[in-house]
Amino acid sequence: MAAKKHIKTQSSYAFESNTSNVAASQMRNALNKLSDSLPVDDPRRARFDNELDSFFSLFRRYLVDKSSGSTLDWDKIKSPNPDEVVPFSVIEKQPENISNLKNLAVLKLNGGLGTSMGCVGPKSVIEVRDGNSFLDLSVRQIEYLNRQYDSDVPLLLMNSFNTDKDTAHLIKKYSGNRIRISSFNQSRFPRVFKDSMLPVPDSFDSALDSWYPPGHGDLFESLYASGELDSLLAQGREILFVSNGDNLGATVDLKILNHMIETGAEYIMELTDKTRADVKGGTLINYDGQVRLLEVAQVPKEHVDEFKNIRKFKNFNTNNLWINLKAIKKLVESSSLQMEIIPNQKTISRDGQEINVLQLETACGAAIRHFNGAHGVVVPRTRFLPVKTCSDLLMVKSDLFYLEHGALKLDPTRFGPNPLIKLGSHFKKVSGFSNRISHIPKLLELDHLTITGNVFLGKNVTLKGTVIIVCSDGQKIDIPNGSVLENVVITGNLQILEH
């Protein structure tokens, strides 16, 4: 029987606080016990140990950052240099080189559940347009690309332990399509009790809510550990286009692909112009002569309003990323990727009580500072079309867009930016949304829509300008079939019976 493998401590950190030393030592011991909950000859043991090892490195860095109070010096923050943020208009003029597709692979971040929209299972299976789910549209886009250019661009899905089983079942239906789909799991890290700073799980098989997927910054290590990175390199793939699975605007752009190859950049982040709805989005800065991503969580409280000023910080990260695969391999193998840690507080239920827990996450956008030649490209807003809420769902289902080869295209007769849509709590879940808006209204001339309360829309409703519908508690508002509402405010109680 092989000797027990415990969590590697590697080189020790110099802690500024004895409390941090104690917390790290206690965590290491607890993780060693957690590791031993699986027999050493269990085929899952090696991966489990690697994940616990990675988690311990993250936890240790968190303690160091916390004890040293390391924060960004606001006075050192500067706007990016012209070569660090490039307008898309410059790239757009360059000719397309179809042969570059042989270097490309596409990855969708597919670890999220649809719980925030009241759905069970992976968010990627929510129906968003004409019977198609997020995943259906991604497959259709890549399949059309391969058919149009006679290419063989593969699609990868990074799942979490929450979405892996369902996704594996779902992708079987694409077996006859002209597309190669593979998936791998991101890491499974233990949540930490906030009071004791010890892991929530006590064995490999502890309840699901004892664990968490550690954010999309885990992409690099998981891609490497899964063997998918080496597989892509063996195929001659050099560039990975990464995007959120719910961003319907994130399609393959040959201009950006060509620009990346011509410039030799190892990392390109797509940015787009901020609106008042995007004031919290991370933005690129120059810090100590290096391009970095600045998130609102890193901003000192006294400068948050300044950060949200769309005149000073004009654009934000769409999380559409183009990354060199050889550079990923080099950085992972040298343990050089150390993204800023995002502490995320959650609660779990134990014996009828709500317990505060902590999960430490990272974002792949923060890795930009580790890559050579890294820079941002300011792309049109059409490349950022996320569906996070049912308010977003209403917009992408409407006549504002039409579907073309799996991609949503804005109606050319639309003037101005996308409308601002705010639906109240009655519309938070897809079931409530579908019940109250069973027929999608026409929104082509809409600027702003607010609906709160028990409101139902009939068939063939048209909304124009600014429309505000506020239903009083305990009341009901029915908008009749064929209604045209333009620049109106409807409040109270409205029920029109048709005869």
UniProtKB/TrEMBL annotation:
Reaction catalysed by this enzyme: alpha-D-glucose 1-phosphate + UTP + H(+) = UDP-alpha-D-glucose + diphosphate
Residues where UTP binds: K123, Q186, G215, D246, K388
Keyword terms of this UniProt record: Nucleotidyltransferase, Transferase
EC numbers for this chain: 2.7.7.9
Enzyme class: transferase
Gene Ontology BP term (one): trehalose biosynthetic process
InterPro entries with a match to the protein in the record: Nucleotide-diphossugar_trans, UDPGP_fam, UDPGP_trans
Single GO MF annotation: UTP:glucose-1-phosphate uridylyltransferase activity
Residues that, per the record, bind substrate: H216
Function summary: Plays a central role as a glucosyl donor in cellular metabolic pathways.
Family: Belongs to the UDPGP type 1 family.
Protein name listed in UniProt: UTP--glucose-1-phosphate uridylyltransferase
Originating species: Henningerozyma blattae (strain ATCC 34711 / CBS 6284 / DSM 70876 / NBRC 10599 / NRRL Y-10934 / UCD 77-7) (Yeast)
